[in-house]
Amino acid sequence: MTTRERAAGDPGVVVVGAGYAGLTTASRLADAGVDVVVLEAGDRVGGRVVSELTGSGVRVDHGGQWIGPTQRRFHALAARFGCATFPTWETGRHVEVWHDGTAVDYAGAAPDDGPGIAEYERVTALLDELASRVDLDRPWRTPRFEEFDARSAEEFFRAQTSDEDALVRLALAIQGVWCAEPREISLFHVLFYLASAGGYEQLMETRGCAQDARFTDGADAVARAMAAALGDRVRLGDPVRSIRQTADGVEVTTGRTVVRAARVVVAVPPATLERITFDPALPADRLGWARHSPMGRVAKVHAVYDTPFWRAHGRSGIATLYGESPVGVVFDNSPEDASRGVLVAFVYGDRLDRWAALDDAARREAVVSALSEVAGAEAKEPVEYLEKIWPHEGWTVGGYECFVKPGGWTAHGRDGWRAPAGRVHWAGTETASVWNGYIDGAISSGERAAGEVISALDAVEQRG
């Protein structure tokens, strides 16, 4: 009996997790004729990408939501399943609210002038220069790898500039992309990530960059379509408790059953590994990598209005806030037909810790007050208000992605990043070389993991 012709009821491969990485892995395996089952702890697919149809009929994305032109794998899947996109709204004047309450309207990527802008642009150009030398497939071969990994982003920023306003701008950039504080993240991880996306501007800007477009039916529309195509191969509400490697395969134990297979692909966030018992225990580097890769701290808050009234006032709804407000960044998240107005506010890092400790009414008041600075007094009266505080999510343990702490790449990256552990393979956006941390990266990681498994199964068949 070959590994692709296992006993009735036993799949050839188990995939743990039904986010984009897990679904891509399963789809590729199924297309190759491998019998596969996907075990998902939650009651839905999509993982860190989740949309909701609100009471007022607006679909909002609580997790990842955007797609950019160079995210080609994501575009290909969207086209395959007929999932439409539309441009992110950016027409009108953006606004920047400084720590003293000063609000400055501007067009384009940033104000022409303002506190710390010149130094901010100089330091970010240096980041791009350093990132251009990163080896994306073997990061540890990057020049000055250990030196950069030993430093936090904050240490690097402070070594480059004493301009406190520039440092505030740089901090918000770190918070916005990684949902972490500059002191927490490895400088090398920042450089790797920039290289993975194609540069600093790709991460930060809207048109032609990572925030270029949104999905008409929510960013999880593609995931839902992929799951529908996989059919009963996807099992929801079935958390994996343990994975045991045996002489000829793996035994995956869930809350309901034991599934035996030739291989398993684990496609969950690194922090979630602590919830699964492995026998034998995972290699020290894999555990070390996971423990050096915490999830970010972020909340995503949507305020829904009867209309996108700020557009009539010439505002785009895009804003950055540098003061004491919990909100760091705002976007116009209205539906394509503008049948309702929606502003989405992001609360990051240390600001999240303080804001999340407030009661419901105080949290709401803090956010709508910030939105009124961006869009006007009408923003204080939304018809709907929705929060998603990602560190409170049971299975994700934070959002939307992990970041790597200083020293993590050096100590554990070579063997802990994505190298298989026997019959256990790894997928997930954190294991991607291109668009690491994004949905496109999750998709490419699933393609890579499926390729590893198919090669391993074929090697066994050839020996047999």
UniProtKB/TrEMBL annotation:
Pfam families listed in its UniProt record: Amino_oxidase
The organism of origin for this protein: Amycolatopsis rhabdoformis
Cofactors that this protein relies on: FAD
Similarity comment: Belongs to the flavin monoamine oxidase family.
Sequence intervals crossing the membrane: none
Residue ranges constituting the Amine oxidase domain according to the UniProt record: 21-454
Keywords: Oxidoreductase
PANTHER family given in the database record: AMINE OXIDASE, AMINE OXIDASE [FLAVIN-CONTAINING] B
Stated name of the protein: FAD-dependent oxidoreductase
